[in-house]
Amino acid sequence: MGCSRESERLGMLVAVVVVLLQLNLVVNGQSSSQPKHCNFTQTPRCLKNVTGLGHVVLVHGIGQGEWYWYKVKPILEAGGYNVTTIQLGPSVTSPVNSIKNVTFWNYSQPLFDLMDCINHSVFIVSHSAGGFNMAVAMEKYPKKIRAAVFVAAYMPDTAHNMSYVLDEQPKYPPDSDPHWEDTCTVTSGNNKWYFFGGDFLSDRLYERATTEDIALLYTQRRPASFFENELAKIQLSNDSYGSLDRYYILTGSDLALLIQFQRHMVSEFPVKDQMFIKRAGHEVMLSKPILLCGHLFDIFRRYGNLSDEKHQLGTVWPVKISAKPDSI
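Given the sequence above, the corresponding structure tokens read:
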């Protein structure tokens, strides 16, 4: 009898606890069968406590998005780095009539927001026209950048305004015409916007990408602008931008940013070191992600761990990986 009553009391106690837990969930607007509330506001993914070997920030080019680093990001993370991809504006779904108030500055704001947020230094990597956004970030936050890597990217110098490299590019025309193929343009506000056509994307930008990647990019196309008029008013300084370590990764078989023009930019504004990837095409992060990451690891390991406050060169790096020339 005593055991029976004790069991009944225990059962009643468990039932009361369950009811109280259910009431608590209801009061807080949640139930065990529903996910918690969230919002879709895009805020900087700020890493306050970076672990491992350091923090890498990846900046995409115009008309593209952070998605195209999807092969590179996990490799860098597997190598011991924290990785943040930046999505510059406007959004993927922006209609034509929504770009009239987009400027170089608010387009670049997601990158600036991240740099404002972090309390440590980063390696920053840009591709194509993302070189312009990265260059301004280097000018604004020189103490938060350990080194910058231009990957087949526009690289402005400190002797001219930022649009100078755009003015120089026509001196290196492609071997075949028409260069822009089925791309069209529209002027909105003070800027010319490009809408890359399917033929241009598959023949010029993604010429070495897989059919799967090309199918993916068709769902991610975005309006693109070089912001020439605004860049013409920006001059970078030797004290900030020019004082940081810069590296350049050149891409062979690049039909968008010809190798001759890439070499011209490097000769005009020499870098700390340069690497070359053969037969990469413009979107090297898709065509040869392993080789690209090998070169990035080679650069990053020169600076040691993030915990090494002096960031001295030659620090022993615990991960042994390197890119072999001309490897697949």
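Residues 120 and 144 are 6 Å apart (CA to CA). Try to locate this feature in the token string yourself.
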